[in-house]
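CORE FACILITY INTAKE
Project code: CF-77B
Contact: R.S. (postdoc)
Sample description: multi-component assembly, two entities in total
Requested service: structural model of the whole complex
Turnaround: standard
Below are the sequence entries exactly as provided by the requester. Do not edit them.
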Amino acid sequence: MATSTTAPGARPDRRDPRAGKPVPAPARRPRRPRRSFLPYLLLVPAVVLELGIHVIPMLVGVWMSLLELTQFHIRDWSTAPFIGLDNYKPTLNFHTAAGRELLHSFWITLLYTLLSVGLAWLLGIAGAVVLQRPFRGRAILRALFLTPYALPVYTAVITWSFLLQRDTGLVNHVLVDQLGLLDDKPFWLIGDNSFWSLLIVSVWRNWPFAFLCLMAGLQNVPDELYEAAAIDGAGFWRRLRSVTLPMLRPVNLVLLLVLFLWTFNDFNTPYVLFGGSAPEQADLISIHIYRSSFKTWDFGSGSAMSVALLFFLLVVSAGYLLITNRRRDHA
Amino acid sequence: MSTRRHLGILTAAVLAAASLTACGGSGDDAGGSGKTLTYWASNQGASIEADKTILQPELDKFEKQTGIKVNLEVVPWSDLLNKLLAAATSGQGPDVVNIGNTWSASLQATGALVEFDDATLQAVGGKDRFVPAALAAAGAPGKPPAAVPLYSLAYALYYNKKAFADAGITAPPTTWEQLAEYGKKLSTGDRWGLAIEGANPNENAHHAFAFGQQYGGEWFDSSGKPTFDTPQNVSAVKRYVDFMATDKITNPSNAEYAQNQSVSDFANGKAAMLLWQAAGSNLKTQNMPADAYGVAPVPFLATPPAGGKKVNSMVAGINMAVFKHTKNKDASLNFVKFMTSDEEQTILNKTYGSLPAVKTVGTDPAFSAPEQKVLQETLSTTAAPLPQVPDESTFETLVGTAIKELFADAASGRPVTEESVKKKLSDAQQKMR
């Protein structure tokens, strides 16, 4: 991973197990690559699964979005009338209630994703840097930090929903009854606070993943760089900015994209926390689509929203990769 | 070095665990082999476990009589409709299912359920066995029913006798105005007048229907088109939400109740009144003795507006349906016949506190307890079926969710006005097609 960074010459020979040994003779390699079907054969299972699990359902989804697929037709799709782009019209027309709510849900989701990914990353990098040097109890802290990620999502989020209940929840008990910080018990699962509750639960669930990836990335940062920086008189922040972060760039590129996609698409957390119908203030797009298709039995319009969402994420991901790749090429 | 390897193993383990949790779906058997049926029961008792304990002996009895084995799965209400929908779409899943009777027309429209035409009805004991009002709520009018009634229910007003006596109230309220007035007297520091399941869309929609009828409103016109935001319906919904918003006889916390916490609050004395269907058996499991509470018909408006109907409950109930994809249709119908037989109707309805769906056992003394008498009277005189249109389940979801959001507004101190109610209902209506 470190090979693609901007620190040439920093490759740690000391850590290379082959260091000192003669480089394997090029003659060992076959002169001409032999044509073989074996690589293709080995790829077949992956391709079949990829087609079956991702590509075909996705295409079916696109097809569904062009049909009027309501409860009258779900049993036999061939009877569903083909209505072209009619599903998209009310969905993407932001003057209707459905379109307005989708747009609202989109902004909420975007805000939620940016905040959640940002906070998860900040916590992750902080945790990883703090635990970079060995000290007594480091292993325990590492295990502890990873716990939220190891817990099954349903169990963890159901527990959160108990904690956040107004009358019987632990959060209000601590804030109001024990600490006396607030006079009146606030709602956490309905109204304006629901957004923040969702954000907190999401960060709590996601930051260990950022922590894990960044911790792995930090293992690849050679000590020499820090030593050299220390000799040059660089303090903690300078070392973080000039050594750690540039060395983590490849990890961050992937980590941020993956976290963004996961959080943007997150269904389990809001579904378990709010039970299927999220409050307006925390109406994430995945829940919104679920409600528009499963709860109202209108799978065509739900698929139309999903396809629109798919295109958005495709554009964002492609743009992100394009920009980051170009920067790397120029660097 | 070794830490790096450990880390790698840890990463792999965490990722593997994460991907494993993602594929814990339910693999339901098609239930086709030999004489084995799969039966999805709805959650009627205090818990899923309680239901299993109640139903299993009856299923064993059925197996002894006929040699047909029935695999039981009790499905919580929050999942039932989705699971039925999945079964209807895929043609896989159970043979026999319980459905909420209000979903009958919606599920009928999928064409996945066996039609109970006269011949099929004959196979389960004949059309005349069933209570007509209950059978009418088993499918769209003019079509063969998509199911047969199993348990019949209606809403009633449950009130805490001691709380009433302490507040000097001698009789349960018969009008909503009285209920609001009594509620204020009953609301003390740690007790509230009325408990409401505010975050449960279905409960909200059921009340919206009954209130709507009293205000002279309809949720669908005669052609099946939604008419959610009529002035009558707006008044009806506002009246219901106002118990929390303006009368303040309902704890704002109820705005987040969706797991029957309102029943628990009533059983624990945290609320003095509750509007519920056959709450008796549930209250019993929560240690509230039957003599601690009274049961009265759901109130009416003191001065009904023009067109207002004397309706105070929907015809509630559970129906039993058979999927067309079953490979054991005869065995399935045989099972339906067993469950609607006199003996089973008496045993099961007695246990659940509901009313029999067949005419022949109504005289059993078990069904003349005070609670059952009120339910029976409501069902036979002042209950009306929810509109039997294919969009009914969508109505429950959309309008019920709109009301949930209104309760959330009321709980967080935002005003609930005619305009805000109308806007929510109009938005819900726009989402129908």
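Facility notes:
- Residues 293 and 299 of chain A are 5 Å apart (CA to CA).
- DSSP finds twelve helices and no strands in chain A.
Invoice: internal transfer
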